[in-house]
Amino acid sequence: MAKQFDVAVIGAGAAGMMCAAAAGQRGRKVVLIDHASKLAEKIRISGGGRCNFTNINAGPANFLSENPHFAKSALSRYTPQDFLTLVRKYRIAYHEKHRGQLFCDDSAEQIIEMLKAECAAGDVHWRMPAKVETLDQTDTGFLLHTDSGDIEAANVVIATGGLSIPKIGATDFGYRIAKQFGLQMVEPRPALVPLTFDEAQWQPFVPLAGISLEVDVTTGTLKGRKATGARFREDLLFTHRGLSGPAILQISSFWQPGEPITIDLLPEMDVAQALIEGKGTQKKQLGNVIAQWLPARLAEGLLTAHGFAHDARLADLPDAQLRKLGQALNAWTITPNGSEGYRKAEVTRGGVDTKELSQQTMMANKVPGLYFIGETVDVTGWLGGYNFQWAWASGMAAGLAI
Ligand code: FAD
Known about the structure:
By secondary structure, the protein is of the alpha+beta class. A hairpin with a 3-residue loop joins β14 and β15. It has helices spanning 14-25, 41-45, 72-77, 80-89, 109-121, 173-180, 199-202, 246-252, 271-278, 286-290, 296-305, 319-330, 386-401, and strands spanning 3-10, 30-33, 52-55, 63-64, 94-96, 101-104, 125-127, 132-137, 142-146, 149-158, 185-191, 195-196, 212-218, 231-238, 242-244, 261-264, 332-334, 338-339, 347-352, 370-372, 380-381. The longest helix has 16 residues, at 386-401. Its cofactor is FAD.
């Protein structure tokens, strides 16, 4: 005979555990199901093993969605301060690293243990590892056919996340269920992901692999003109295949295939103006002038890549050439040919269309009792603790509503 529950949560990651704990602590009989053999791998590997569990400045403006208003309700009802209260209750030491990003001092394991304890406080039942083979609607709710027996549940919460990092258990289960119940999707694609370039185009920059510096990056234009796209000031990292680092991960979520990105490698100065003004006084070689402002290896590599002789004397170069170099350093415009894909993406953009869900409860408008939370939904945070905050907030919204 099928086991009966008020709530079956599929996916015991960040959002799923939060939701199960909240519903369980409200007296609902909850079962939490996951196909992985190891619990919450994404939390474990997050933030370099220290879990950037929230961002104290998180607000709706830090999220991408076809409907930017959708996330407001859940985010305002479960805030970073609410999650911090929980973290403090479990005496987990934490610190702020950069722009409101909060990390555990010791280990991401502490967040997993905290969520497990919260589930235990709600008397949550576990089915793990267990594979949900089919999910069907019945007169009283749903019937889940799993490889470890059938489950009947009045409500089902889909918390199976996105497609990023398939090797630790990511699947398209949530999207398949959405389609099964006739819900619209926003096309998923990798986000917070390194960008790649055509091999021949990238060849001159390969020697720069490993160099990192703070830049301005935008999907629009920079300097003097208003940026037409998103804009971030963060660290950029040159790699053998392209560009990475927080600046690129951030902009990748906004980048559309075929579009260029523009990078200002020296956002605090107008390079063309400084070079032209320096002509009279600077007797130095161009390479040495640029190396005053950028790491020497980068200065040399960029001059070569952009076709400038390292040993040319600044005073001998026409202004038009110096303006061209200024443009290359202040507004380096380059078109990625793609990204490193789901293998390296921290998150998946897109997912279940928010038009299909209630922003108060996360329940599907046309399928009473079926909820979608976390990364499965078309709400994607910036880099910096925002994605976990969405997982906690959307999990809590559903957990309190069921
Ligand atoms: P997940 O946490 O991915 O959980 C989904 C769960 O569903 C998993 O346990 C999975 O095993 C299970 N599942 C999947 N398919 C099935 C199925 N068919 N049947 C049963 N179970 C299934 N965000 C931050 O805010 N801060 C960070 O520091 C951070 N670091 C990151 C580092 C890396 C390397 C990566 C990849 C992501 C990082 N993120 C970070 C993003 C963050 O991990 C996710 O946004 C968040 O985990 C999403 O929560 P979720 O509960 O929706 O999905």
